[in-house]
Please model this.
Amino acid sequence: MVNIALSGCCGKMGHAVANSVKQREDCRIVCGVDVYNDNTYDFDIYSNFDEIAEDIDVIIDFSNPSCLNGLLNFAKKNNLPAVLCTTGYSKDEVASIKESSKQIPIFYSGNMSLGINLLIEISKQAAKVLGDSFDIEIVEKHHNQKIDAPSGTALMIADSISKELPSEPQYVYDRHSYRKKRSKNEIGIHSVRGGTIVGEHDVIFAGQDEVVTISHSAQSKGVFAAGSVNAAVFLTNKPAGMYDMSDLLSSKL
Model:
């Protein structure tokens, strides 16, 4: 039985993770960490990691980048693996995550959905075939409460595609100030925020007289929650290092 500490347990994704864990017999949530306690759980909720008294095996985090330092310090102090699902980290925070992975196992992904990671693999193959002669644009859509833009998933897609191109592309996030033609060495990344859209991503390869679009649409937050729980069980007893969805998928093949 894998004992989980759930960071950000009182948020929407926290509740989705808790519901996902209830459907399983190989893990359980023994405590939560959140600055706000909505009193809906039967486990203790702490305002910071240092208050945790339970024996835990892994941390799942769906909180806020501001919680990262406390989480990493606690994980390193107690030699605990961590599944980081929060998005919107700065370059310095990402560097801190990578440095911490030298001491503890860290599963870090901008999106925990199996389908979106399949989209990434297909997009990489498309970039190998079409990248030299097709323009590449990424459009991501999320609900009106999402704070960061572009989404971590859109950047993850762009970074994966970039590795397959002959030269490093320039990311262009907003064209309204540009008064020039689109250059070939660009990946356009566009954000839409509205309503209750869970998450939609389109990767567009636009060529001469033809367009190839690869799409993924998440219908509920449950797909991300299930992925994070799978990652937590997978990460238990792994050596220190950085892990992502490709490692999890490989373990299932």
In short: The mean pLDDT is 93.
